[in-house]
Design goal:
Radius of gyration: 15 Å
Number of domains: 1
InterPro entries: Acyl_CoA_acyltransferase (IPR016181), Bact_Acetyltransf (IPR050832), GNAT_dom (IPR000182)
Pfam family, one: Acetyltransf_1
CATH superfamily: Gcn5-related N-acetyltransferase (GNAT)
Largest sheet: 7 strands, mixed
Strand content: 25-35%
Mean pLDDT: 91
Number of strands: 7
Organism: Halococcus thailandensis JCM 13552
CATH topology: Aminopeptidase
Strand order of the largest sheet: 1-2-3-4-5-7-6
Distance between the termini: 25 Å
Protein name: N-acetyltransferase GCN5
Keywords: Acyltransferase, Transferase
Order of helices and strands: EHHHEEEHEHEE
CATH class: Alpha Beta
Helix content: 25-40%
Structural class: alpha+beta
């Protein structure tokens, strides 16, 4: 598995595919079917171009893991500074997204992406924080096995409904 920066519209389409697959698997019993089924593999060219522009702005904060055929099997998206969520302080980085194709869960891709992602953060960063949906057992196991600890709860709005979340932190 190679880890590299995002490179063009094909990568964005693959990232979107991984995102949809991971959401449908990880949140199957957490989110309503209507929400999960609303996420589409058929992303319009305009949306792909917009996402590519967004990711290009954050080029140094977005990595993909690709297999020998250069197919994206997972990705990580980090944010810090003004781009981070409100619960992320100036000396912290926010793990905005990390998703792995469910067919590749348990193969070390997530851990590899975390390691490479942590190499991108500025030296003054002291911790990583993330927020995930409560009840995501796969996510809980993954983060806790890598030293993240739950530090707070919250909620997020998805499709006009509110769902509970957990905020995790890892001291670097």
């Amino acid at each position: 598995m190679e880890v590299r920066h995002l490179d063009g519209v094909d990568d964005v389409r693959e990232v979107e595919r991984v995102n949809v697959l991971a959401w449908r698997e990880a949140y199957d019993e957490i989110l309503p079917d209507a929400v999960l089924n609303d996420r589409s593999f058929d992303t319009s060219d305009a949306v792909v171009e917009d996402r590519l522009a967004e990711f290009r702005d954050d080029h140094n904060r977005f990595l993909v893991a690709v297999d020998a055929s250069d197919t994206v099997r997972g990705y990580i998206y980090l944010r810090w500074g003004e781009d981070a969520k409100e619960f992320v302080d100036e000396d912290e980085v926010g793990l905005k997204e990390i998703y792995i194709d469910p067919n590749y869960w348990g193969n070390g891709i997530g851990t590899t992406l975390l390691e490479h992602g942590f190499d991108l953060v500025p030296e003054h960063i002291e911790a990583v924080k993330l927020e995930m949906l409560s009840g995501n057992v796969v996510g809980e196991r993954f983060y806790e096995a890598r030293g993240f600890t739950p530090i707070a709860t919250g909620e997020v709005e998805i499709s006009d409904s509110t769902f509970p979340t957990i905020v995790y932190e890892l001291q670097l």
